[in-house]
Amino acid sequence: MKIDHFFTPEMLTDPSIPYEKRRSLLLEASRRYLDHHQARIRAKHDAGASGASVVGSLTSMIDTLIRNLYRSVSADVPENLFGACVLVALGGYGRGELNPRSDIDLMFFYSGKDKDFAEKISERMLYLLWDLGLDVGYSVRTDADCLQMADKDITARTALLDSRYLVGDEDLYQDYMRKVLAVVLSSNTGDFIRQKLDENARRLKKYGSSVYLLEPNIKEGEGGLRDLHAALWITRVKFKARNLRELIIKGVLTEREGEEFEAALDYLWRLRNHLHYLSSRKNEQMQFDKQEMLAQFFGYRDSRHGLAVEQFMQDYYSQATRIEHIASSLIAKATQQDDPGSRILGYLTRRVVDDGFYILRGELRLSDEALFERDPAAMMKAFLLSQRHGVPLNISVKGLIRDNLRRLNDKVRRTRAINEMFLEILRSPKGVAETLRDMHHLQFLNRFIPEFGRIYCKVQHDAYHIYTVDIHTLFAVEEVTKVWQGVYREKKPVLTQVANDIEKRELLLLAVLFHDIGKGEGKDHCNKGADMIPTIARRLGLNREDSRRLEFLVRNHLKMAHISQRRDLHDDRLILDFARSMGMSENLRMLYLLTFADIKAVGPDVWSEWKGFLLQELYEKAYMVLERGDFQLEKRSEKVRNRKRKVLALLQDDYDPKAIRDALKTMSTRYLLSYRSAEIAAHLRLSFSRQNKALALQVEHVPEQEYSQVTIATLDVPGLFSKITGVMAANNINILGAQINTRSNGIVLDILQVRSSAGTIIADEAKWRHVEEDLAAVLEGRVKVDTLVKKMQRPSFLTEKARPRIPTRVEIDNRASQEYTVIDIYTHDKVGLLYDITKTLKELGLYIGVAKISTKVDQAGDTFYVQDIFSQKILQEDKVAEIRQKLLLSLDGENPSETTPQ
User: Fold this and answer.
1) Residue 325, CB-side half-sphere exposure with 13 Å CA sphere
2) What is the pLDDT of residues 817-835, one digit of tens each?
3) What Cα–Cα distance (Å) separates residue 434 from each residue in 430, 451, 474?
4) Maximum Cα–Cα distance across the chain
5) Mean of the pLDDT values across residues 320-332?
6) Contact partners, residue 536, CB within 8 Å, separation at least 6
7) Are 854 and 885 spatial neighbours (Cβ–Cβ below 8 Å)?
8) Residue 472, SS3?
């Protein structure tokens, strides 16, 4: 529909009609115009129009509106005020890149003598645009104002670079081009580039200096629109070009590179258009809920390879990686200095380091650009030489590697030379992680190890996995190298010593590199990844022993984390079975390091010193069994007698020996074997100190593991542990683990490992006194625990951030323990979750012996060792089904009828 259908000549240009009357007509017509064209453009977008087409239509729509409004508001300006003014589009609008909710940046440029006219026009225009609900930024300036602002403010100078004529005095705009734009483009080039690079670094620090963030910002984050803008600004100033086309004409970019740049913009524009349409206000961040909507809009569907949203995000990360490469390559062209002014001796001297390779200006370069065509294995040599000499690859070498990736066929991959160089890179004491990152960034790693290519930019749609699978893997490699470098020597001496005892470091790094390759094949990634190892090992030229060890590590890489975090480490039979499964100490050592690196590299909120403590405890116990060699447990009865004698000796000077013997008789063999003599003596001291009180409570802080241990001595009552968890929840205290020991005389000793909800030790003594008072009140019946928990669960007026929710699962295992039924619960974390679970278990008539609590960001994985009222495992199928059903209903009301029994 043409503009004439909305704006009549009378309302636009007839000075005989008073402006106020024309203004109301203009507003009504403008609203109709915007409503019509915005709906038309949205329909165009929904029908599959390109990003560039929609952006162009939105820009054209606003251009037309502004030009007509300008003509109307200037039609009746009195002659004594009339002067020269030109309306200039700046920033994204100046580039002609409007998305649905973009800002509209305008400058009213005037000659020094026409200020009154410019201010009159700007005032009328701006109030009209604001009344229409448009987000408008503006300035009223002369050439002197522009140059002064550009000199002081890098952002203002950048905005001026993207100037575009809209409407007004064309001669004045030519003056602006000559007096302002030409100066801005050419003055202080070096200073502008330095400031822009600094600004870039600050931006990435704020919005995330990784393409692979969980909820990426598609404008400001790495691999987003601002990367392309920054690259274009810097190269335009460097090479004095007004736009991308001029950079191609001047030979800075090839036609193909220009097409890649425009394609990258088009991809991001289409995404941003839909993100804006989905949001009620300007939004640049692809939040979880928006990711799912975007995936659906762009036609992704769930398949055996992954959820639709995971496939969509995998493609996004792949595109963002390519965009970051386009931008960084362009910036590199502008920032390569002919005379860097380095004082390093030999910096400007060409130094040959191998056939076809030399170092100049601190970069590795090629003496023959056809080298990779003749010898594709030389690409691996480039990475090896870069690592060995500690210099980066020159931008042209990187480009040649990308251009020749197709030459890495199966024949080349199997050559002895290329594999020996790869293993040499892994054996190096320096630069391993950095070199692998370069290989990944240039997509060389994907071609050299095709199985790794299957996890390239692979996404797991949850709040737990912060990075894509491939980036997580590279971070895990970095964690292992940091252990070898001694970064964790003080805080993790055992881990550091174990790392230094590894015989073949390159084999461990291969295990880390391949531990998640099965995720490209769907579920059961441990076994699927392990099944790939024999093929990969043959290709790499590994011997049979190394191949088998590598396969073992990949197949079992989740085992130590699962057992340490979710199983009872006081269970001797469990430790014995785990040690047997390791086969030999070297397998255990490597698996310990692989597990540490895997957890540490998931994300900043996943690793904790408590998890590290549990992992080390499992390692040390299994190592002792392996080193003993006979796999035989000490005679339990003899060990129990010795422990009782030592406890008596420790306490007999302070307490009646008969009272001590009587107390020891009430203790289970399991308890006596689980704790050292000094620990049992300390527990008895606490029990004796209780006397006639409801409870005795002791708190010990363990700063190196970042938790506190709370020991509670009391009398057994129905649902005791549920009451304890409720009091802890009401006081905002997180339970990490719990060991529940009930003596035959009804005295209970519960040992809890806890920390604050912020993950820190709670050192406030007043807080612990309050906890003790609350617990006493609950045990004595003066306060109901439900009342305390409900106070903590008051509704929040803040909207919870959308996150992918995992379905609640309840798995019941009667094989993991000889004495207990083990219940594993996986669900979404919430305040009071542990209380809800323990309350349900109490209502089911179950007694908890051990609890292990694991929270990964917003996912809870809690384990409970339970028995019935007769201290027996729950073996009846109908009772097992009832437990699962009641737990699912109490957690989220799910109907468990379709839940498969475990």
Assistant:
1) 19
2) 999 999 999 888 777 788 8
3) 9, 21, 9
4) 114
5) 89
6) 449, 451, 514
7) no
8) helix
Write out the DSSP string of 729-758.
Answer: HHTTEEEEEEEEEE-TTSEEEEEEEEEETT
The amino acid that residue 825 corresponds to is I
How far CA 509 is from CA of 3, 478, 484, in Å, comes to: 66, 10, 12
Under 8 Å between Cβ of 466 and 210: no
Which three-class secondary structure string do you get for 343-390?
CCCCCCCCEEEECCEEEECCEEEECCCCHHHHCCCHHHHHHHHHHHHC
Instruction: Give how far Cα 901 sits from Cα of 102, 181, 415, 836, 897, Å.
Output: 52, 72, 49, 22, 10
pLDDT value at residue 794: 57
CA distances from 389 to 385, 432, 478, 485, 598 (A): 6, 13, 19, 19, 29
pLDDT in tens, 351-405: 999 999 999 989 999 999 999 999 999 999 999 999 999 999 998 899 899 999 9
Instruction: Give the H or E element holding residue 66.
Output: helix 51-73
DSSP annotation of 306 reads: B
Residues 262, 263, 264, 269, Cα dihedral to 10° = 90
Helical (H) or strand (E) element with 181: none
Integer Cα distance of 16 and 741 in angstroms: 95
HSE (CB half, 13 Å, CA atoms) of 825? 30
User: 102-134 burial, b if ≥16 CB within 10 A, otherwise e?
Assistant: bbbbbbbbbbeebeebbebbbebbbebbeebeb
3-class DSSP assignment, residue 821: strand
Whose tokens are 């996943």? That residue is: 606
- Can you tell me which residue has the tokens 């994907």? 446
Cα 517 → chain centroid: 19
Enter the DSSP assignment of 469. H
Cα–Cα distance measured from residue 75 to residue 65, given in angstroms and rounded to the nearest whole number? 16
Classify residue 151 as exposed, middle or buried by CB count within 10 Å of its CB (0-12, 13-18, 19+).
middle
What's this model's pTM, rounded to 2 decimal places?
0.82
Q: Is 697 helix (H, G, I), strand (E, B) or coil?
A: strand
* Beta carbons of 234 and 331 less than 8 angstroms apart: yes
d(CA 519, CA 60): 46
Q: What angle do CA 95, 101, 107 make, to 5 degrees?
A: 45
pLDDT of res. 803? 57
DSSP state of 394: P
**Percent of the chain residues past pLDDT 90, beyond the cut:** 67
Instruction: Please give the span between the terminal C-alpha atoms of the chain, in angstroms, as a whole number.
Output: 64
Q: What is the dihedral of CA 651, 656, 662, 663, to 10 degrees?
A: -40
Residue 837 to residues 755, 776, 841, 844, Cα–Cα distance (Å): 19, 22, 6, 11
Give the C-alpha separation, 506 to 527, whole Å. Answer: 22
pLDDT at 896: 43
Which helix (H) or strand (E) segment holds residue 280: the answer is none
Distances in whole angstroms, Cα of residue 53 to Cα of each of 47, 57, 276, 526, 890:
12, 6, 16, 45, 52
Q: Apex CA 537: angle with CA 535 and CA 542, to 5°?
A: 145
Q: What gap in Å lies between CA 27 and CA 45, rounded to an integer? A: 26
473 and 516 Cβ atoms separated by less than 8 Å = yes
The pLDDT-based confidence of 632 (bands split at 50, 70, 90) is low
Tokens of 101: 């909710």
**Main-chain phi, psi angles of 365, to 5 degrees:** -130, 165
**Of 859, 856, 857, 876, whose CA–CA distance to 868 is shortest?**
876
CB 240, CB 185: distance < 8 Å: yes
Q: Is the dihedral of CA 631, 637, 638, 639 positive or negative?
A: positive
